[in-house]
Amino acid sequence: MTLTTQFYTMLSMIGMGALFGAALDTYSRFLNRSERKRWLVFINDILFWILQALSIFYILFVVNFGEIRFYIFLALLCGFAGYQALIKQYYLRFLERVILFFIALYNFGVKMIKKMIYSPIKWLIVLLITIVLSVGKGLLSVILFLLKVILRVVQWAIKLIITPIWWILKGIWNLLPKNITKRVEKLYNKVAGILKVYIKKVYRVAETFKKKPKDNE
Questions:
Q1: Within the chain, where are the H helices?
Q2: What confidence tens digit (pLDDT) does each residue in 43-81 have?
């Protein structure tokens, strides 16, 4: 391994140490360990360390074809320590500003979607429902009006048909002998009385059936 390669390896590992510190702070900021379940934190930790190891090995492979030396670990440690001492506070401030920016951007996008898509669709649906209800009410009122007109026409037609028949039957009834009309009236009265008696009996039986469940209770 040449001195140039060793120099590039040292610089790249120092940079990877600093990037590892930044990645660790970013990971801790978004993970919220106290709010997560332990098994989920454990899995995330394993994936994070595997990703960092693969990233460091990839950079090392690009620089010196993956040759591992003792000074590589020292360079990583120096990069991480330099990040902790010099860059961490500035990076955390920058990270918070980036997070706030994306939160504000997300809120702005949500508001724009609500105003440009959700609200017009909502008001369009409300307008369509209002139109349908108003048209339905209008049609219902028209149908009811037509039914009333038809019923009145039917009633008028029935009266027009029945009235002459009624006058004819009344004239025939008046022409009949009085003894026949009296017999018919007596027969009508008897039948009506018998029907009244049976109706009263049926009503009493129905009342007894209604009272029995109440008595049992």
A1: 3-31, 38-64, 70-82, 88-113, 119-175, 178-216
A2: 888 898 898 888 888 888 888 776 777 778 888 889 889
Q: Return all residues near 83 (Cβ < 8 A) that are at least 6 apart.
A: 17, 18, 20, 21, 22, 91
Residue 77 to residues 51, 70, 73, Cα–Cα distance (Å): 18, 11, 6
Q: What is the DSSP letter of 35?
A: G
**What is the value of pTM for the model shown?**
0.52
Q: What is d(CA 25, CA 34) in angstroms, rounded to the nearest whole number?
A: 15
Q: How far is CA 195 from CA 84, 107, 184, 190, 199, in A?
A: 109, 82, 16, 9, 6
Between helix 88-113 and helix 3-31 the angle, nearest 10°, is 50
